[in-house]
Write a structure and sequence with these properties.
The protein has two helices and twelve strands; from the N terminus they run ββββββαβββββαβ. It is an alpha/beta fold. It has a single domain, classed as Nucleoside Triphosphate Pyrophosphohydrolase. The strands form three sheets. Strands 6-3-10-7-12 form a five-stranded mixed β-sheet, with helices on both faces. A four-stranded mixed β-sheet has the order 1-8-9-2, with no helix packed on it. A hairpin with a 5-residue loop joins strand 4 and strand 5. The protein is globular, with a radius of gyration of 15 Å. The protein starts with a strand and ends with a strand. The relative contact order is 0.28.
């Protein structure tokens, strides 16, 4: 279902749900970051999505990365916790989600780039090439926090 993201927009619709979500920074041996070209909003993004009943955040992260990219990963750390109430995503079915996502660092275990219904392209992208990509500000923030090599996770 197509979605539209709003960040700090006074005309954004009011949130009517919160879905715990995860996202992942996946890197290869060259330090490139795994990105997907999303089919629902045409932005480049790191892989991620909502938790399903009965799974941990680590399991959800590995599942979402596998589903959206074809790669297997394991969680190694936390980039940050993102819960900005001024960031909402509106879906065609009327759901308007307030952001609540934990972004994890991961270790690449294997697999092969495989686009899905959620990702039209799956690529490892050089850090220097990321600024030129059409990326939502909230995802760019996560990537930047990762690249800052913070001593402690971002919480906000």
């Amino acid at each position: 279902m197509p979605r539209r993201d709003y960040l700090n927009d006074p005309n954004a619709p009011k949130a009517n749900s919160i879905v715990p979500a995860v996202s992942a920074i996946v890197t290869d041996d060259e330090g490139r970051i795994l990105l997907i070209h999303r089919t629902d909003n045409d932005f480049w993004a790191i892989p991620g999505g909502g938790l399903e009943p009965g799974e941990s955040v680590s399991q959800a992260t590995a599942r979402e990365v596998k589903e959206e990219t074809g790669f297997d990963v394991e969680v190694t750390g936390v980039v940050g916790i993102y819960s900005n109430p001024h960031h909402v995503a509106a879906y065609d079915d009327g759901e308007v989600r307030q952001q609540f996502s934990i972004c994890f660092t991961t270790r690449l275990l294997g697999g092969a780039a495989t686009p899905s219904s959620e990702s039209s392209e799956v690529n490892f992208v050089a850090v220097d090439d990321i600024p030129a990509l059409n990326m939502h500000e909230s995802i760019r923030l996560r990537v930047n926090h990762y690249l800052e090599h913070r001593a402690t996770p971002f919480i906000g």
